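Render this sequence as a predicted structure.
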Amino acid sequence: MESSVFRDYLKKLNLFAFSTSSSALSTPKTTTAEKKTSTPEAVSTPAPTPIAPKAPEKPNTVSLFAADIVIEGSVFSDSDIRIEGTIHGDIECKGNIELSGSVTGNMTGQNILITGAKITGDITAAESLYTTDSEIVGNLFTQTADINSSVKGDITASRMLVIRKAASVKGNISAASISIEENALLDGSVCVYQENK
């Protein structure tokens, strides 16, 4: 009886093709009289088409380095990272970086937001770089930059560079387009070039 219930359940799921002839899960044997009056029919169900499992969508994860964390060594990440602590080493991130802590080392990411941080090392943002109320000693490389911090190093922006009024830049600047707000401090040369299209 139990095997019959199990067989019916599997048939509903269309997982197996069943036959009423010899099978461990078939119904109990019929009597000779029943065999004469009924012809066994083979129940044939086509094998189910395998369904490829969908790859789970990668959630937009952010790795957090809290304020009390100190890391001695390089950091590599495929996801976005947020750094409130201290890192003594290079940072390579395939996602975005949000920094409000301290970094001694070079930093590379897609979009980088720096707020109230201290950085000693070069910064490369594949797309955009935004800084405010920070101290940076190193060269900056990006497509678009918005600087409202103290920078001691050269700045290269392949598209647009904005130097805000609270910024202090000691280094050379080169960009396809530049805007310098009144009261911003700049000690270095400025080169504006035509953007390659």
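Summary. The chain has two helices and 17 strands. Residues 2-37 form one domain.
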